[in-house]
Write a structure and sequence with these properties.
about 140 residues; alpha+beta; R-elafin; Complement Module, domain 1; 2 domains; three-stranded antiparallel beta sheet; two-stranded antiparallel sheet; 2 helices; about 25% strand
């Protein structure tokens, strides 16, 4: 009886995404974005392409897993990996002489938006300070 009760308590706190075989956190009270319809199984999802899947902070939700996010926009002085599908991660890198700000990756979410904020590449100015310092020093 104790084992069954323990399993019930654990099951109430965490859903299992049977397709992926991974635990899915419960829907956050304030996920910071619009969430799709909550679900526990595919029969609750309307639309032939929608399935019940784990959607990060939104928990188990109905959505089309074949969706793609839009182009994340220009990324001056750097490169972005080409991934665009749901759950895929794009990686940002900067050209030589630039530093990456605001993270190096973003994930395509079920609302077709990229997680986080758009990173940017800022010029490394410290090189110029070192050069000026040595130029002003008597040898």
């Amino acid at each position: 009886m104790l084992k069954m009760l323990l399993l019930f308590l654990i099951g109430a706190a965490v859903s299992i995404d049977l397709i992926a075989g991974q635990a899915c956190q419960p829907r956050s009270a304030n996920p910071g974005r619009a969430c799709k319809k909550a679900c526990t199984h595919d029969a609750q999802c309307r639309g032939r392409l929608k399935t019940c899947q784990c959607d990060n902070v939104c928990g188990m939700s109905c959505f089309n897993p074949n969706l793609a996010c839009n182009d994340p926009g220009p990324f001056p002085n750097g490169q972005i990996s080409p991934e665009r599908g749901y759950g895929q991660v794009i990686r940002y890198t900067c050209n030589v002489g630039y530093n990456l700000r605001f993270g190096n990756n973003r994930t395509c979410q079920s609302n077709k938006q990229w997680s986080g904020v758009q990173p940017r590449c800022d010029r490394e100015y410290w090189h110029f300070f070192i050069i000026l310092f040595y130029m002003g020093e008597d040898l």
